[in-house]
Amino acid sequence: MVVLTGHSLTLDGMKRLLFEREKVSASSESWKKVEESRKAVEQIVQENRVVYGITTGFGKFSDVLIDPENVEELQLNLIHSHACGVGEPFPELASRAMLVLRANALLKGYSGVRKVVIERLLEFVNKEIHPIVPQQGSLGASGDLAPLSHLVLPLLGEGEVFYKGKRVEALDAMSQEGIFPITLTAKEGLALINGTQAMTAMGVIAYLEAEKLAFQSEAIAAITMEGLKGIIDAFDEDVHIARGYPEQIAVAKRMREFLEGSKLITKQGDIRVQDAYSLRCIPQVHGATWQTLNYVKEKLEIEINAATDNPLIFDGGKKVISGGNFHGQPIAFAMDFLGIAIAELANISERRIERLVNPQLNDLPPFLSAEPGLQSGAMIMQYCAASLVSENKTLAHPASVDSIPSSANQEDHVSMGTIGSRHAYQIIQNTRRVIAIEFICASQAAEIRGKEKMAPATRDIFEQGRKRVPFIDKDRVFSKDIEEATTWLKTEFSPTKKKVIFEVEK
């Protein structure tokens, strides 16, 4: 059980909620803050005070006063009018993450919603009722208004949800679980949609997948080192301490441990004096990606515990301030940075693939083919990797450098962070396929050299992968092999050597 407090949620907790489907609850202390904040909203309505989003319209309509008897209609109109997302839905995991993150933000006690609203969010998580949320339509400032409106619709008994592996009407799923729709009252609609939870949810999933992929890329690069008889000296600890980046030092250490006991690696001067950069600079390039991952993790762990709606209520309602915590710029930058960093893992991986298949760059059979000429071997797998790398380069163009004014220029600068998070996620999917191709080629090369000569750690990984992708003794439909290896990386891959392989030194 993950207990939400509004300030202590971690990426590890999100991992358990998303991938292990743990249940969620709220702390008693957070409920007290929620109740105090709600009393403040009710007092504002009762006194007919002019407060944005409670007794006024929204955006450019912030100067339009709303009669107290119309507050429920105001909130419903807000959700209906803002639910204009388009395109394919976010992955179901992202919808689940949005529910959790929205609940955690509201539990901070600055938003003024009733307890029942948060309880319903948590109930959806625990019953695994995940709203259908279209991916496109958010500017990433004023919050993720369109996506989060679609997240809210099922709470009202409207819209569609993922439920028991199917896409169904929300009311049908709720009826099966004995859950009744709620009616939103003063400020609640605004509090639910004025936030960064769509981009942050995608960011959390992207980060968790990227972290796993970064470890995997090192393990597979180690097999490539064996397939190409790479020079181990480049990973000597003194080299990396001399530069000083902790992440680079850690990657070099893991590479040494992966390759410990290998009879396929070489020393300087045995075959050649230096390796190409795609081998020699693995710690420098992969280490820089780890630097980025550490930055992204830090920003995400702040954002998943942030109050991002507007206005925020302080001091029991004595201070109600319209600010801009809904602006997604911190996450927009982080997502663009994440996409660029993971794209580089694919970039350097593809160069290693080229060295594995190009007979002008190695002493292996051309394109690792069993019968060069009659059979093409891995030739077109390299084409596929090159195409994915090129696509990543277009996806890695930063979304955060763009802004289009909205709401009659009231909202005149926006982050486009949700676009950045979606692109980062797609880059990760592409990169996983590139690394899957590297695994296929590296394993083929290592087996040609003699798998019995591999290091214990790389041999273990090799044997795991061979259950999915057999030795290439003749041409076959390699698309199937690529997808098999990709699925293995996403769901099963598990290096078993020393624990340090999984850890990034602090």
From TrEMBL:
**Where 2,3-didehydroalanine (Ser) occurs along the chain?**
142
* Name of this protein: Histidine ammonia-lyase
Q: Which CDD domains match?
A: PAL-HAL
The source's superkingdom equals Bacteria
The terms under GO molecular function for this entry are: histidine ammonia-lyase activity
- Main subcellular location of this protein, as a coarse class: cytoplasm
State which pathway it belongs to: Amino-acid degradation; L-histidine degradation into L-glutamate; N-formimidoyl-L-glutamate from L-histidine: step 1/3
InterPro entries listed in its UniProt record: Aromatic_Lyase, Fumarase/histidase_N, HutH, L-Aspartase-like, Phe/His_NH3-lyase_AS
Q: Which GO terms describe its cellular component?
A: cytoplasm
Its GO biological process annotations read: L-histidine catabolic process to glutamate and formamide; L-histidine catabolic process to glutamate and formate
Lineage in the entry? Answer: Bacteria, Bacillati, Bacillota, Bacilli, Bacillales
**The reaction(s) this protein catalyses:** L-histidine = trans-urocanate + NH4(+)
What would be one Pfam family of this protein? Lyase_aromatic
- Protein location: Cytoplasm
- SUPFAM superfamilies from the UniProt entry: L-aspartase-like
Give the enzyme's EC designation: 4.3.1.3
Looking at its record, which EC class is this enzyme?
A: lyase
Q: Which family does it belong to?
A: Belongs to the PAL/histidase family.
Q: What are the alphabetically sorted keywords of the record?
A: Cytoplasm, Histidine metabolism, Lyase
User: Which positions hold the covalent cross-link 5-imidazolinone (Ala-Gly)?
Assistant: 141-143
Q: How is it modified after translation?
A: Contains an active site 4-methylidene-imidazol-5-one (MIO), which is formed autocatalytically by cyclization and dehydration of residues Ala-Ser-Gly.
